[in-house]
Write a structure and sequence with these properties.
CATH topology of the largest domain: hpI Integrase, Chain A
Strand content: 5-15%
Structural class: mainly alpha
CATH superfamily of the largest domain: Intergrase catalytic core
Distance between the termini: 106 Å
CATH class of the largest domain: Mainly Alpha
CATH architecture of the largest domain: Orthogonal Bundle
Largest sheet: 3 strands, antiparallel
Shape: elongated
Order of helices and strands: EEEEEHHHHHHHHHHHHEEHEHHEEHHHH
Number of helices: 19
Helix content: 40-55%
Strand order of the largest sheet: 1-2-3
Length: about 450
């Protein structure tokens, strides 16, 4: 069996424009089959002996010569390797076409294996493989749905972008700015393009997002890009030219021990269900856990006069057991509900209803003190009545703030609140008030 390459066309001596198709031929006894390839060459440059370019050809780059010569040799080797005595001209034509267009002949599974994943598919992989607590995964999924709606928004509103899709390698700082604009104004697009939210539903109607919320969303997108880079899914680093500011928080506010005791003493006998939630709030003020951890406390969480739990935020990273001794008030509350049905430590309702109940409890207790807060949307300072903004997280700040005021040691307080040593978030839970400043200055006497 002999395999060779040849051309059929000729050209005048000085003609350098004409191109001839390169054919391949197989001879085996009486069998003589031929088929055309997609390789072409000027007839005056062809060497039938070398089956490629002649040695000395002017006006043709070495790269072009090498590419064609390699192509001819590759096809010759392929034919020689795949040949069987029962083949025909159609087999030869298909084999050469496979060489030029391998994608046409790959099975779907093979195509899926080599297909580049979209940014959203990589985001799903990130959520599956990156160590995140369930709470954080939930927050990341909100961002992922926002990115998916951004894709739909671009397809619907930009000319020539009907097939737009986010590509991890093609996201630029300009892309990030465009996503930021979409996230910031999504509450408006919800009214203008309601069909977007039929395609990618959201559990809540979009509201204006404040700067801190946007920064939080984009810090999650940045973490995703870091993961892609670390796992060699992209070399793209669009955040290098899209720096994120630090979030802005107002001075931490919390209730005093006297205010907490006033809440505990408030007569709520006419509202027994509210009295139960009042007890739970006071208990939370005395142990300082997050509401998600409070919800999961069981009767077995109380060991030797202290409550023990592993904060959800550290559970999937470095598990840290927090042990908080219970004072007389906390023990009294635990004892009050010791016979309540179920294994829960306290008869907790849903988180949303708990926050509504806290506002009613504060109002009933007459806690109308004005506090200065930062509006999360406008980032402007404003005065609010305490009972209007009270929530379960205020209990955690109350625990941290009042303890810090007594001991002024963030690591000691953090051991009780579940904050990591050196936590930057710790500063958002305690304030250095005038009384503490006076105590510090008096040390200089």
């Amino acid at each position: 069996m002999k395999v060779s390459a040849f051309i059929r066309k000729t050209a005048s001596k000085n003609n350098t424009d004409t191109l001839a198709t390169i054919y391949f031929r197989v001879r085996d006894g009486k069998k003589d089959i031929k088929a055309a390839s997609e390789l072409t060459i000027n007839p005056n440059h062809w060497s039938s002996e070398k089956q490629g370019y002649k040695d000395r050809v002017a006006l043709v780059s070495d790269e072009k010569k090498k590419k064609l010569n390699s192509g001819v040799q590759d096809i010759l080797s392929l034919i020689d390797r795949e040949y069987t005595p029962d083949v025909d001209s159609e087999w030869l034509a298909v084999l050469i076409d496979k060489y030029h267009h391998p994608q046409r002949y790959k099975k779907q599974a093979e195509l899926d294996a080599v297909r580049k994943p979209t940014l959203l598919e990589l985001f799903d992989e990130f959520l599956e493989k990156h160590k995140l607590s369930e709470v954080r995964k939930k927050n990341y999924r909100v961002v992922r749905r926002g990115l998916e709606r951004y894709q739909v928004f671009v397809r619907m509103t930009r000319r020539g972008q009907k097939d737009f899709g986010l590509d991890v390698d093609e996201v630029t700082p300009d892309t990030l700015r465009d996503i930021w604009d979409f996230f910031e104004n999504e509450y408006r697009y919800y009214e203008l393009y309601p069909e977007i939210y039929e395609i990618v539903p959201e559990f809540r109607t979009p509201h204006p997002r404040g700067k801190n919320t946007l920064l939080d969303c984009f810090s999650r997108i940045r973490t995703f890009f870091y993961w892609c880079r670390d796992n060699k899914r992209t070399a793209n680093t669009p955040f290098d030219d899209f720096p994120l500011e630090e979030c802005t928080y107002g001075t931490p506010y919390y209730i005093t021990i006297d205010e907490r005791n006033k809440i505990y003493r408030t007569n709520l006998s006419r509202h027994p269900q509210l009295a139960v939630q009042r007890d739970i709030f006071v208990f939370q003020c005395l142990i300082g856990c997050r509401v998600g951890d409070l919800l999961k406390l069981t009767k077995s969480s109380v060991i030797d006069g202290a409550v023990e739990y592993i904060p959800r935020k550290t559970k999937d990273g470095r598990p840290l057991t927090v042990r908080v001794p219970l004072n007389d008030t906390a023990l009294e509350i635990v004892e009050r509900y010791a016979d309540s049905p179920g294994d829960n430590l306290l008869p907790f309702i849903s988180e949303q209803k708990y926050n509504v109940a806290i506002k009613r409890i504060f109002k009933a207790a007459g806690l109308k003190r004005l506090v200065t807060v930062i509006n999360p949307t406008t980032r402007e300072e404003e005065k609010r009545v305490l009972y209007e903004i009270a929530s379960s997280h205020l209990a955690r700040r109350t625990f941290v703030g009042n303890l810090y005021k007594q001991v002024k040691d963030p690591n000691l307080v953090g051991a009780l609140s579940g904050h990591k040593e050196g936590s930057r978030a710790f500063a958002r839970y305690r304030a250095i008030d005038d009384e503490m400043k006076k105590e510090l200055v008096n040390l200089l006497k």
